[in-house]
Amino acid sequence: MAITIKEWLHGLGLERYAETFQENDLDLELVADLSDIDLKDLGVTSMGHRKKLLRAIESLNVPSPSTNGQMDVAPDATNTPSNLTAQISQAERRQLSIMFCDMVGSTELSLR
């Protein structure tokens, strides 16, 4: 038996958003495509609720292993250009801080 969006949200303790999800024609298949910004647009203003939903959405995307222990992926779908482009577009950006220290006299020493 397939779980509905209302049951899924109820299981998360976020049933207050069930009507909003249904009004926007979102089902569990489409929920996997939602981002933090999409959730804000839907009216999920609480940061905690958005994080909870995003974690639950990630757990929906976990691929199930097939009977032979390998993942259910089409054999030629892993290295197609469109698949690689999709993986690149989902890359995470992180800030990097770099600190440069110049010890007294080290520049003069390096020139010698």
Summarize the structure in words.
The structure is a single chain. 47% of the residues lie in helices and 0% in strands. The relative contact order is 0.08. By secondary structure, the protein is an all-alpha fold. The chain is built from seven helices and no strands. The chain has helices spanning 5-11, 18-23, 28-31, 36-42, 47-60, 81-89, 106-111.
Counting helices, strands and paired strands, the structural category is mainly alpha
**Which stretches are low in confidence, meaning pLDDT under 50 for 5 or more residues running?**
62-77
Tell me the total number of β-strands: 0
Number of helices, where a helix is a run of at least 4 consecutive DSSP H or I residues: 7
Quickly list its features.
single chain, 112 residues, mainly alpha, rod-shaped
Question: Briefly, what is this?
Answer:
With 112 residues, the protein is mainly α.
Topology:
Elements: H1 5-11, H2 18-23, H3 28-31, H4 36-42, H5 47-60, H6 81-89, H7 106-111
